[in-house]
Amino acid sequence: MDADKRFAEALDRMDAANREDPRTETVDGWAQPRELLFAQRVYDWVKRLVDIPSDALLLAARGHTLRRWMIPRDRYPKTTAGYHQWRSALADYHADQAEAILREVGYSAEMLQAVRAFITRANWPASSEACALEDADCLVFLETKLADYLNEWDEAKTLRILERTIRKMTPQARQLATQLKLSNREMELLGRAAQSHQA
Question: Domain tally for the chain?
Fold first, then answer.
């Protein structure tokens, strides 16, 4: 299998895995698997953020949340420590899932290691490409998920989460965040979080 076909096959298999997500998001009147949409959006943002992204970065972007629904948040304590345990378990799980697919289509051990490093954030923030993946993830969160949480979180919690999100982003991504199509309330909270981060 040549390089282009291998890459396309890997993306197809990752998409097929995320297409199994029982959770859906309605886009233009069509219910679509939530994780499939999220991964594709992060992938698209990475291509906007990096002029010539490596194949490892693109594969990681598409596979960094593979089958996320399989490890629900409520499996861990509703504490800060529990949250971090959940995120760590997810990262390892996603990396394992992506590695299995990449091995099946014939990628080298070096590629498997590179993709795993992106997914587990082992090379963040030292690597500019790893920063781009983090930026893309944060931008998609702000663009598509923040609105749903505004009714779930109180204002103090929302600001804390936005401050942590902004802290992870590069200056370029923070600037792009101000150009997203967000509601007035979302923009207000994002602005307040950014001010707090700068203070």
Answer: 2
Write out pLDDT tens, residues 12-53.
999 999 999 999 999 999 999 999 999 999 999 999 999 999
Cα distances from 74 to residues 11, 23, 40, 46, 83, in angstroms, run 29, 16, 25, 30, 9
SS3 11: helix
Instruction: Mark whether 25 and 79 lie in a shared domain.
Output: yes
Q: What is the pTM of this model?
A: 0.95
127 vs 130: CA distance, rounded Å: 5
Supply the range of the domain harboring residue 194. 145-199
Q: Flag whether 134 is in a domain.
A: no
Residue 139 in any domain: the answer is no
Per-residue b or e along 103-117, where b marks 16 or more CB atoms closer than 10 Å to that residue's CB: eebebeeebbebbbb
DSSP 8-class letter at 30 = E
- b vs e for 132-147, b when ≥16 Cβ sit within 10 Å of the residue's Cβ? bbbbbbbbbbbbbebe
For residue 179, give the 3-state DSSP assignment. Answer: coil
